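Service request form, structural biology core

Requester: graduate student, group of Dr. S.
Request type: structure prediction, single chain
Budget code: on file
Notes: please return the result as structure tokens.

Sequence provided:
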Amino acid sequence: MFVCPGNKVRQEVSSMPGVHQQSVDQIVEECREVAGLGLSAVILFGLPETKDAKGSSSLSANGVVQRAVEGIKKANLNLLVLTDVCLCEYTDHGHCGVIENGEVANDATLNILAEQALSHARAGADIVAPSDMMDGRVAAIRKKLDENSFSDVAILSYAAKYCSAFYGPFREAAQSTPQFGDRRSYQMDPANVREALKEVALDLEEGADMVMVKPALSYLDVIRAVRERFDVPVGAYNVSGEYAMVKAAVQKGWLDEKRVVLELLTGIRRAGADIILTYHAKDAAKWLKA
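Core staff response, request fulfilled:
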């Protein structure tokens, strides 16, 4: 779910039919619907009022994500609240970390990410989900949370996040397109499976409670490899481009949406995912309840 500034704002993302940028009040109302459908959790991405080189607005106790978490928690809904921990939505350059000498500076980014996670925990987040792919960020976040008495807040690490062409619609939704270069220096090579296993092992050593593979459909073999190697909850992110392709084909009348969506979600589950993050969640829940 994409949280934006304002009140009574609900703007559909053009490349993702059915997905909206929404103000906090609208997010809370949709969460009531989500909880009523029997879904167990939501994840929040923020569209801030201001951006700068270091993503400073991501740390504000009055930020859009922080206020949305507080609103959902005050509504007493039976939902786990996850928050995306990253800088790309909050930086004016669109990269996931601080820029030094024209490059993403890994170590200079870690404390900002840890402070962002702490602000989410203070707002009431149940799980923080670092998606930036900086080395060492899980350890930094775990240390910061534990030092501030949030040892019960779990970390879902995007441990195997590939440099994928399937993220385009998300970058429209989150307004996070890089202003220069790309993210190949810190996201993973799509051809490499062994590196994914190494990254998962490192994040678990640093304190991750759960791990994510992203994207899902082109990386089912990676999900299976992670599932077979590690005895922890494994998530899979059915990303924006995968969603948009289905929606476009359905609008053309080329696919049966219900059958296709349930088949692809079954495939992700069959590959070994315990948790599926998907924009199809509400529709799938309705179909499965029918």
